[in-house]
Amino acid sequence: MGLYEFAFYGSMKSLLCNDGEKSMTQREDKNVLESRKNELVNEIDRMKDELKQREAQLPAHSIRPHQILAIEELEENMKKKKEQLQAVEEKLSEFQNALRGR
């Protein structure tokens, strides 16, 4: 389930529950977001390692275009993961504030 699907599903689920169930739903949603955050952090770390490895394998001269393209693609994917991580962290912050405010 994508982040936007999760957010929509979470909001719809919250609308259908009474107050006691809503706080439990928020906790469950928070746990799912924390799990997703951990997955993204691990993926970003793996990508950083792969990027370092690819850069270390570049020859001093005669770099081939496919080597540069692979690095650029990896950097772009890493950027997208970082954006997803930021969105998850923002949503987690909202959940934490909502749980404190009840």
**Average predicted local confidence, pLDDT:** 81
The description of the largest β-sheet is:
none
Structural class by secondary-structure content: mainly alpha
Task: Tell me how many strands there are.
Answer: 0
The H-and-E topology, N to C, reads as HHH
Number of helices: 3
**What are the low-pLDDT stretches, counting only 5+ consecutive residues below 50?**
12-21
Task: Write a brief caption for the model.
By secondary structure, the chain is mainly alpha-helical.
Structure description:
The structure is a single chain. The protein is an all-alpha fold and 102 residues long. It has one domain (3-101). Helices cover 87% and strands 0% of the residues. It is built from three helices and no strands. The chain has helices at 3-16, 19-56, 65-101. α1 runs antiparallel to α2 and α2 (19-56) runs antiparallel to α3. It is rod-shaped and about 60 Å long. Residues 12-21 have low confidence and may be disordered.
